[in-house]
Amino acid sequence: MKIIKFGGTSVGSAHAVKEVRNIIENLESEGEKVAVVVSAQSGITNKLVKIGELAAEQDETYSQIFNEIEAQLMGLITDLMPINRQSQIIAEVKKLLNDLEDVVHGVFLLRELTPRSSDFILSFGERFSGRIVSAYLAVNGIDANYTDARELILTDSSFGEARVRFEETEKRITKYFDNHQKLNIVTGFISSNEKGQTTTLGRGGSDYTAAILGAALDVEEIQIWTDVDGVMTADPKKVKRAFSLETITYMEAMEMTHFGAKVIYPRTLQPAVNKSIPLRIKNTFNQEFAGTMISDLSSKSDYTVKGITSVEDVVLVNFQGSGMVGVPGIASRLFGSLARAEINVILITQASSEHSITFAVHPKDAELCREIVENEFEREIETGKIDELDIEYNLSILACIGEKMRETPGISGRLFSTLGKNGINIKATAQGSSELNISVVIEKPDLSKGLNALHGAFFKGEVHSLNVFMIGAGLIGKTLWEQIKDQHEYFINERRLNIKLVGVANSRKMLFNKDGINIDSWFDDLMEHGEQSDVHVFVQKMKDMNLPQSVFIDNTANKIVAAQYKKILNSRISVVTPNKLANSGPYRYYRELKNAELKNGVKYLYETNVSAGLPVIKTIESLKLSGDRVIKVEGVLSGTISYLFNEFDGSKPFSQLVKEAMNKGYTEPDPREDLNGMDVARKLLILARESGHELEPEDIKLESMLPESCFNVNSVDDFFVELEKFDDEMLKRKEKADEEGKKLRYIARLNNGEAEIKLITVGPGHPLFDMSGSDNVVSYTSTRYKERPMVIKGPGAGAEVTAGGVFGDLLLISSYLE
Ligand SMILES: NC(=O)c1ccc[n+]([C@@H]2O[C@H](COP(=O)([O-])OP(=O)(O)OC[C@H]3O[C@@H](n4cnc5c(N)ncnc54)[C@H](O)[C@@H]3O)[C@@H](O)[C@H]2O)c1
Ligand SMILES: N[C@@H](CCO)C(=O)O
Ligand code: NA
């Protein structure tokens, strides 16, 4: 036999009641014997509560609510039953309504609502429901027997939340079911005391009824039919990726419900737990869903952490003082006084130094708590042995729940590192010795971020998101998203990673969407729907959105954007950038960014600052880490200038090649930055700093390839006018080099901390002689690579190789955050 219990929404509409019938019919057709427990129609119990309260205040508006109940029930009956079959059930319900009206009228006259009359008033909800469901089943060929649970469940007289007298109750139930072999439709929630007066079972009472019946009849399963897909890994309103669990143990279910998952009430499980009867949570409105099975078995293949739950509002109370160390009885006095004041303590921790006890309570109890404790320890506070209470507000609790955590090492490590990498500060932690629950107290604004980050960390099979913010939507920005788009499906399927664009800006517009901007149409969406762009607003918005696994990409060549990195890193958001300006300004800012990276546990990656995607920065990093030291750096660091000399054969003027380089996407947004040597100077400065030299921009000795006149102009167009005047001179230089069998190279060199950039000629056999396209060459001489340097060579500019490098940095961050 199975007990099937239907909640308020499952009997709340004609559509729902029809589903109930299908469910019963399906089970019976499979040969199952069932008994049904019903709750009151959704909304009815609240209205009954209201009626009682109003009547007790002699407020006549109670009759309006009475009429609403009548209308709701009559509406349900007419929707449900054929006209010619309605009269009997309408008569039954009207009779109940009359009885209800009599009691309420009594309350009105007496101006008093006793717990006993309150229970009696509430009992009508389940009685209406049981009558209507039985009548509907009867007209649809299911011969059902309406059972008033007051005949079965016997309690004491604690009205409102009566205690069950189990022995007598069980006898009653077994006897009743022996004598009533038909399908029994039992009213949930209600019971009676030894005088036959109506009592109720408290919150979650109908589940309790089901569990009591199940235990007495020793059924094989109890099904709780509700309107959600069972027990989920987290609250789906807070964690989009939450999903339904197939199985969960009783202990886990109790712990989860304790922390706010409202599918079931822990107390109600007890009779089922005692007899090891499995419970299954099913969805009336999604019958395909197999349900969450709650039992004492946890399957081998199951998750270690079953759920991530939270308590949204708590305050943390810190009770401390030098006078408590080694003094017994302090904790007992503290918690004793709180218990007497009925203050519920949600979490407690005490460090082994015994210098302080920290505990969490509900914010509504904070002030009372202060009063009680300061009163209890008045003497100790006066003499300075105990400090005044320190209460911290606006906090939340995050908890990971799972029985298997006990046997699995590293769970708390992952919990703490996940929160740490997402910049979430932990105020207090508590782990029950059962190791069923690890709880941490964090600041409330971080709650959603923390829930999502932990969910991603513990449910690995689930797709997790990398939330990308990007300023700069030009050549590199667009190419990057073309590349991400091409790999998107692969990442989702193979790496369970969803790279989302959650904020984007160019110099005109900016657009945000925490669920992700469409990656096919993001640029058009930005231009069509974006608001006016503002770098400072953008940075603040990123901070306010406070998303887990966030990365900021700067694809501009802009100084103001570069100046924001420190603030961004301090907001615990990682930064990826091809923009060189932050690392090539004052040394102090470069250092500050490195410090901010370390301090905040985030990443600051800029491989594409030098030689686009070529691994020149990574290489210095790994040489240093392994104990090597870079002594000398030499190379060609400008893709643009490299292209100019590689392509310059005299057939086209030099200035025309500069335009070609621009069109090929090799130059800076302003090509003068390449030709005046500044771009190379910045790169050399960055390589010098990475190798350990504290150089400033003015320490770079820069020999320009072109005369000053080219740069004393106001626009790129004027620059080209001046540049053309220099075409002949460039040709002459080239021909002279040709005569000597040599090639022109604009080289950058760092030697013994001295940095210089100049135009030279090199002959065959020189490492910089053989080059083509936008090639860069970087050679490192180090204590280990002393005889022959390590050389890195390849395309050092261009949209694909640069965007690819940015993408690579982004993925490094993603695996770091995992
Ligand atoms: N092209 C390459 O081969 C290469 C190689 C390595 C590094 N880089 C670097 O990549 C970066 C981007 O280069 P690009 O070729 O894509 O440039 P681009 O001119 O095509 O794009 C720049 C983008 O930045 C935006 N922008 C500029 N100032 C802004 C501001 N204040 N606020 C918001 N948006 C702003 C522009 O609107 C544009 O969308 C530069 O820093 C460049 O040095 C480029
Ligand atoms: N404009 C740069 C792009 C790479 O930073 C170059 O030509 O090398
Ligand atoms: Na690089």
From TrEMBL:
Query: Span of the secretion signal?
Result: none
Its catalytic activity? Answer: L-aspartate + ATP = 4-phospho-L-aspartate + ADP; L-homoserine + NADP(+) = L-aspartate 4-semialdehyde + NADPH + H(+)
Q: Which domain of life is it from?
A: Bacteria
Q: Which Gene3D superfamilies match?
A: Acetylglutamate kinase-like, Dihydrodipicolinate Reductase, domain 2, NAD(P)-binding Rossmann-like Domain, VC0802-like
Keyword set includes Hydrolase? no
**Needed cofactors:** a metal cation
- EC id: 1.1.1.3, 2.7.2.4
Any single Pfam family the record assigns to this protein: Homoserine_dh
Task: Name the pathway it acts in.
Answer: Amino-acid biosynthesis; L-threonine biosynthesis; L-threonine from L-aspartate: step 1/5; Amino-acid biosynthesis; L-threonine biosynthesis; L-threonine from L-aspartate: step 3/5; Amino-acid biosynthesis; L-methionine biosynthesis via de novo pathway; L-homoserine from L-aspartate: step 1/3; Amino-acid biosynthesis; L-methionine biosynthesis via de novo pathway; L-homoserine from L-aspartate: step 3/3
**Keywords, sorted A to Z:** Amino-acid biosynthesis, ATP-binding, Kinase, Lysine biosynthesis, Metal-binding, Methionine biosynthesis, Multifunctional enzyme, NAD, NADP, Nucleotide-binding, Oxidoreductase, Sodium, Threonine biosynthesis, Transferase
**Where's the ACT domain?**
319-394
GO MF terms here are: aspartate kinase activity; homoserine dehydrogenase activity
What job does the chain carry out? Bifunctional aspartate kinase and homoserine dehydrogenase that catalyzes the first and the third steps toward the synthesis of lysine, methionine and threonine from aspartate.
User: What PANTHER family is this protein classified in?
Assistant: HOMOSERINE DEHYDROGENASE, PTHR43070
Q: Which family does it belong to?
A: In the C-terminal section; belongs to the homoserine dehydrogenase family.
Subunit (UniProt): Homotetramer.
Q: What is this protein called?
A: Bifunctional aspartate kinase/homoserine dehydrogenase I
